[in-house]
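Quick entry, no commentary yet.
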Amino acid sequence: MSVFASFGISGSALTAQRLRMDVLAGNVANSETTRTPDGGPYRRAEVVFAPIRAPQRLGSTKRPESPTTGVAVSQIIADAGEPKQVYDPGHPDADASGYVAYPNIDVVTEMTNLLSAVRSYEANVTVLNITKATAQRALEIGRA
């Protein structure tokens, strides 16, 4: 694997994890949002990753499947779970029975997922820095 391929893989992971962190932060920020422009409570969003595959060369007989050259966000899906029903007849979004539909978001779970995304981001920064240092050292050796 070349140095540039390592940069590409780590770079794609940084981009994907950054988007994941943004989505998770949005989930936490909207954990009490009972009304959205679409109607109803906020729906928890989840990021789905997919591998980026190298394009297959024409006439290549090497492998039927191309190697993975990174990761990308394939989609962001909304949670299909039912919202939490909380009895609060004085709330402006309460239904006729006095219940308010709140997002089905567990803030502790979201924060745990956010911590995981931050650690993944940091790991990819470390890989990027080590790859850069290795490439710089190889250039210095080449000059000698």
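second:
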Amino acid sequence: MSRPDGRLEPGQPLRGAISARAWNRAQDAADLVLGAGTGVEAGVGSTALKPYSWAFCQPSVTVARWGVLAITGVAITPTGESGGATASFEEMPVLTGGTPSATTTAWCVAVEPIESGKIGKVAVGGVVQCKVEVDKSDDKFVGCSSGGLKTGVKGEGLILYKESGTGSGKWALVRLGTTATTELDVITGVTLGSSGLVFTRETVYVIGKKSPSPSSLTVSTTACT
């Protein structure tokens, strides 16, 4: 009997015209055409579309499905133009992962359970579901905290949906790959009130720059006397 994914067991002929190895290679080619590796995977019995781009990852810790990993490097480092480690890197690059922290900015989401030292699939871009800690109900972004993901006013993931309420263990749908966002308090206006200068302050978010260096504004107190 054929396997549910359409492949044959070793030694099982297809009406005597094709070997199991040849049939399985044809199935592998079909998976590639259907987009395996770019977020479109062949499902069991049907084509299951996945809205994320995935890569292989070998974590140093065990991670559950939809858990988060800090991206720490690659399992095999290319060493030259061709051959050896470079050939392995070209054929199948594998990320390495670890426990995230509050300073982690490069991270991924496991789309299947992965044991420590084993290789599995992780989402590195696109839209993926995950569990997050909701800090404030109106947060629009998500980033790493100690051991997981936490919502905030900035982060590498844009929240498309999240469960209501605050606290940990909340389901969310996140778009990975959001440009780095920095929160800044800026003065948007100055007026002269009855008791002195009144500064209007507003919080703004700068996209694409981690360490903005705004120019300073000096107000002479002698000019107001």
